[in-house]
Amino acid sequence: MIGNFIADAVKGNNYEIYSEGIIQGIKMHRQIDTFTDTHPITKQSRAKLMPRYKKYSGVIVDVFYDHFLAINWSSYHQQPLPDFVNEIYTLMHNNIALLPAKSQYILPYMIEHNWLLNYGKVEGIQRTLSGMAKRTAFVSYMQHATEELLAHYQDFNQEFTLFFEDAQHHFKNSF
């Protein structure tokens, strides 16, 4: 779980300093990212966003899919989402010394504003995308992406559902 959480903050082979369990989590996260980035359904979702958001379309789709995972959580997991989220926050907080500096910095904000649970609300997605827009090197317009989310809500939800079923099948025996 820790490796999955920190994977985006660990570049290249810099994961070799971590325990085997954390390394497995980082590698798992990277495999899922590759699967997601190359999947035809996510490409379809990105195509709706590409004209306005260009290279940021993939990031936006990831956030949209996080939203649909949150609102459909009970279809995929028996544990209630608030309980799962609290376990993640506790695990990360209790192991903060293992996290890269970037993850250590962002974790208190994530917990304080309950990012993971708030992905289930369009307002939470709006805050996330607006925050990301402020940190991009180029103009991204991500702060406006919830307009597309709302305009194509059912399409994105259906695409997420098809994608997630495929991902579950693909990774069923992988981890």
Uncertain runs are: none
Give the count of helical stretches. Answer: 10
Overall 3D shape: globular
- Classification by helices and strands: mainly alpha
| Mean pLDDT metric | 95
Beta-strand share of residues: under 5%
SSE sequence, one letter per element = HHHHHHHHHH
Describe the structure.
By secondary structure, the protein is an all-alpha fold. The chain has one domain (40-171). Helices cover 70% and strands 0% of the residues. The protein has helices at 2-6, 20-38, 40-53, 57-71, 81-94, 101-112, 115-118, 122-135, 145-151, 153-171.
Summarize the structure.
By secondary structure, the protein is mainly α. It has helices at 2-6, 20-38, 40-53, 57-71, 81-94, 101-112, 115-118, 122-135, 145-151, 153-171. It has one domain (40-171).
Outline the secondary-structure elements:
Blueprint (H helix, E strand, L loop, with lengths): L1 H5 L13 H19 L1 H14 L3 H15 L9 H14 L6 H12 L2 H4 L3 H14 L9 H7 L1 H19 L4
Helix pairs in contact: 3-4, 3-10, 4-8, 4-10, 8-9
